[in-house]
Structures are given as structure tokens and as C-alpha cells.
Amino acid sequence: MASEGLTMERLVQAGAELADEVGFEQVTVSGLARRLDVKVASLYSRLKTSQDLKTKIALLALEELADRVAAALAGRAGKDALAAFANVYRDYAREHPGRYAAAQLRLDPKTAAASAGVRHAQMTRAILRGYELTEPDQTHAVRLLGSVFHGYVSLELGGGFSHSAPDTEETWARILDALDALLRHWPAP
């Protein structure tokens, strides 16, 4: 492949595909060069470091996730919105495990503030307003939801639930029911 035709968008997309195949932690500029059949030096003229590539993959993943969540939330409220939000994250992690891992990358404050991560927070808070949560309970609930969703998805992807019954779909549905009940009856401080 001619390196002249490699746009930043194409490099990041190829990096994201590589992350899904080999794992986000294994992504490097040299690995991307091998994938694209170009010289490493030609990529370093566009990418500063492997960390630069990983940051760009993380930004892509956050954008893709935010777009999917926004589409799923349209016209929904309450438990329907909560379930749609959660299912998008779970489905995305299953479809794109490397990108999902990338979305967890810690970004510097300036990059984070300009990323689609802000949209994620806004959408989460919009769901929580449907449960009539105000600050600081809203922030506590954002952290709870993120922890439960990420924890479950990570364990599931790692095979942590594959050895026992009941089916993970049943457990996931029960978790969403429990979260909905908790959010409707949020404990007073």
C-alpha cells in the first residue's frame, strides 16, 4: 500500500481494527505499519508515538460509542433509556473489544474535555434526570452505572461467567432491573 494514500482517518481506523484483533495494549506504530504493509518511518511522519496512535483510537471509540448511545436513547426515558444505554455499551464491547478497551484510556484533561466522553457524561446525566436525581447523588449514580456496566462487560469478555448457569443474558436483565429499582428509590444520605 502506498503510504501517500494513508490519511489520518485511515490510520486510526486500521489501528482500531488492529486493536479489535490483537488487543488494545498490543497496538503499536510498527504493528500498524506491518498491517498496512508500509515502512514504519512513513507512519512516524503522521503519528508521533504509539501512545499518539492509542489516543486517537480512544477518541474514535468514544465517538463511535457516543453516536450509538445517542441513537439508542432517542425517544426513550426511564428504564427503557437505562437499558438502551447499557445494551449499547455491552454490544459495542462484544463487537469491538479492542476499541472498548481504548475507550477506557485515561486522557489528559484537555483532550478529555474535547472528546466525546463529554457527550457520554451528558447522556448519562440525562437518563438520571428521569429518575429525579440531583447533585451529588447524580454523580454517585454516574459512577455506579459506569462501574457496574464496565465491570460486568469486562468479566463477561474475559470468560468470567462462561463456566456457570444461569445464562449471562438472564443475569444482565436482572442487573438492569435492580439498577432501575435502585435509581427509582435512591437512598437518602
UniProtKB/TrEMBL annotation:
InterPro entries named in the record: Homeodomain-like_sf, HTH_TetR, MT1864/Rv1816-like_C, Tet_transcr_reg_TetR-rel_C_sf
Domain of life per record: Bacteria
A Pfam family reported for this protein in Swiss-Prot or TrEMBL: TetR_C_33
Keywords: DNA-binding, Transcription, Transcription regulation
Residues within the DNA-binding region(s): 28-47
Occurrences of domain HTH tetR-type (ranges): 5-65
SUPFAM superfamilies from the UniProt entry: Homeodomain-like, Tetracyclin repressor-like, C-terminal domain
Name of the protein: TetR/AcrR family transcriptional regulator
Organism: Streptomyces milbemycinicus
